[in-house]
Amino acid sequence: MLLLNEKHMQQAASMADIMEAVKTAYEIYDKEQFQMDARTHLSHNENTLLLMPCYANQSFGTKIVSVFPHNRSSPVTQGMMILTDGNNGTTKALLNGTYLTGLRTGALGGLAARYLAPDDARSIGLIGTGVQGFYQLAAICLEYPIQDIYLFNRTPEKAIAFSEKIKSHISPHVNIHIKHQPHEIISRADVIVTATTAHTPVLPNDPDLYNGKLVIGVGSFQSNMRELPEELFKKADHLFIDTLDAIQESGDVIDPLKSRWLTESQVIPFSSVVTGKVTPPLSTEKPIIFKSTGMALFDVIAASVIYEKAVEQGIGLKVEL
Could you give the domains of the chain? Predict the structure, then answer.
């Protein structure tokens, strides 16, 4: 078995590699060439343990993730990924699931920007300066020549620390601005990312703020969580989702459908965009929304790519169980 920690994974595969892996996963999803149960949620108070199994491309993948939203000295999201050979049941690798989750979720946002953002996008606004937000910016900056990044966090000190960390992972020509109110970000950004564990919307409920912008929501993964406001859904023509499971899992999909801010026909799996079956109507008069909850298929394909590249390069620690 190969042990791959964060450093090993960074050496083996780049964000660009993972974006292509996620693109492959979308193609597999569209063709239904996988087996995947809905992820298991086990919650105690506000803390959650997730179990995410999947079979695809001759590998089983099982990710175990904990989400502790009040963590301060430890990451909010942590986990491990077990990669199993689909032919003989041998455990091929144990990967750092915390890093894998951030990496592949960032890749989801990067791909959303590739297909849905306006061609002249030059600025990003980020609400929530945690691990997920970091990888979102890293991926989107690969897709567009971003000139300005606007940050908001409820704790300003975290935004300051975040800005210093992200500088070493993006172009030195990008200007980073820390703002004190979300609306200051919305008015300036072409692409808006929400990466929080909020239970109530973190964006202003003003439909005119979002015209022509792409809004990427990656934080809400449970039915009682919501990051996006009512008027945004009412103004949008479509809501693109990374997996149909989001219809049962995320408050950012459940609430708009239940309240009839959107109809079911307006909710479109993003795999249809990746495979060319749907061409998103980009407009300066309407916002575009992409909602990600993640799924185990992304993890198993991304983990397989990292594992294969690590083997090729002789990276990782081999152990016997």
Answer: 2-101+296-318 (3.30.1780.10), 106-291 (3.40.50.720)
Which amino acid, 286? K
Distance CA 175, CA 163 (A): 10
Q: What's the one-letter identity of residue 36?
A: M
Q: What's the pLDDT tens digit per position in 172-183?
A: 999 999 999 999
Cα–Cα distance between 118 and 204 in angstroms, integer?
21
Angle of helix 296-313 versus helix 97-116 axis, rounded to 10: 110
Q: Judge whether residue 321 has pLDDT over 80.
A: no
| DSSP H or E run through 84 | strand 77-85
Query: 183, 208 in Cβ contact below 8 A?
Result: no
Fill in the DSSP letter of residue 70.
T
| Token couple for 28 | 């597999």
Residues in the chain: 321
In single-letter form, the type of residue at position 2 comes to L
Alpha helices in 168-229 (DSSP H): 182-186
Tokens of 194: 């929400």
Per-residue burial over 270-281, b if 16 or more Cβ lie within 10 Å, else e, is bbbbbeeebebe
Residue closest to 234 by CA, chosen among 267, 208, 207: 207
Overall pTM > 0.90: yes
- On the question of pLDDT at 69 being above 90, the answer is no
Residue range 233-272, pLDDT digits in tens? 999 999 999 999 999 999 999 999 999 999 999 999 999 9
- Cβ of 88: how many Cβ atoms within 10 Å? 7
Q: Which residue has the tokens 């185990």?
A: 296
